[in-house]
């Protein structure tokens, strides 16, 4: 059985706009000037609309043309439809609510741009905070989602997704890596290298931070100090000192050949990376996009940690 064609299948919104212009201007020619078209085009638009709606829209008068009695009933409907469509267009183009996402500097530096590409219609406010600061500020609601290093946080209206493990390595310039020799490097040799160590200011004093290195701060040959891991890596490149931290933090410098990931005998450490989200503020679609980008980031980090490691010792070699 042949389906009947919808009577409004060929309806043109522009015809409705033209009719309302004629109603407002009082003549076909004035409406044509307002719309930048010919009088003939206006006349054809009115005829199409009358055919679509099956009503006579205009009547001639001494003053020109004016809406018919039937048109007076249709006008509010047309005006309402056009108004709603215009508002929908404005809403679609308007910036939506911003999502505030926090994370360690090295995570946000590597993922910030990728997240924007993955969510082109989502406004992001990206914060770079130390892991301990993220945990401390999560209950305040200053951000909507955060990358958490270590055990996931547990708060009301928040949900956490464990993304994977951040592999930790010791980083050194190729020159230092060559001097240390094949992996795994004996810890005794590491104790001869100067470390760039993390510090923070507290009450006017500089306090060393725990970077998770198996070699405690007090047992190292301390070299430069830096407040962020990114700065520490910069100093290591410039001074041939070593730094301990997540492979994810050094991806750019590994790819550029400025640093090498060193495997130290007995140092097999990692940190859990999770995404904590306020479920009242972050949509499921946004959560899925962030998780996808983060999982790719972790996979790349794992690959690079092996790709840029020095050669391993052969079995039986001393």
Low-confidence stretches: none
Could you say which structural class the secondary elements and strand pairing correspond to?
alpha/beta
- The rough form would be described as elongated
Sheet of most strands: 7 strands, mixed
Approximate strand percentage? 15-25%
- The CATH architecture term of the largest domain is 3-Layer(aba) Sandwich
- Cα radius of gyration in angstroms: 33 Å
Sketch the topology as an H/E string, one letter per element: HHHEEHEHEHEEHHEEEHEHEEH
Count of discrete alpha- or pi-helical segments spanning 4 or more residues: 11
The number of E-state strands comes to: 12
The end-to-end span amounts to 86 Å
Question: What's the average pLDDT?
Answer: 84
Number of domains: 3
Helicity, as a percent range: 40-55%
Give the CATH topology of the largest domain. D-Maltodextrin-Binding Protein, domain 2
**CATH C-level of the largest domain:** Alpha Beta
Short descriptors:
single chain, 318 residues, alpha/beta, Arc Repressor Mutant, subunit A, D-Maltodextrin-Binding Protein, domain 2, seven-stranded mixed beta sheet, three-stranded mixed beta sheet, 42% helix, 23% strand
Report on the structure:
- The protein is α/β, with parallel strands linked by helices.
- The protein has three domains: 13-93, Arc Repressor Mutant, subunit A (Orthogonal Bundle), CATH 1.10.10; 100-164 and 271-300, Periplasmic binding protein-like II (D-Maltodextrin-Binding Protein, domain 2), CATH 3.40.190; 167-269, D-Maltodextrin-Binding Protein, domain 2 (3-Layer(aba) Sandwich), CATH 3.40.190.290.
- 42% of the residues lie in helices and 23% in strands.
- It is built from eleven helices and twelve strands.
- It has helices at 13-25, 28-35, 39-53, 69-93, 105-118, 131-137, 174-180, 187-190, 229-239, 251-255, 284-307, and strands spanning 58-61, 64-67, 99-103, 124-128, 145-149, 158-172, 194-202, 205-208, 221-226, 243-246, 260-262, 270-278.
- Strands 3, 4, 5, 6, 10, 11 and 12 form a seven-stranded mixed beta sheet that branches.
- Strand 3 (99-103), helix 5 and strand 4 form a beta-alpha-beta unit.
- The radius of gyration is 33 Å and the shape is elongated.
- The model has no long low-confidence stretch (mean pLDDT 84).
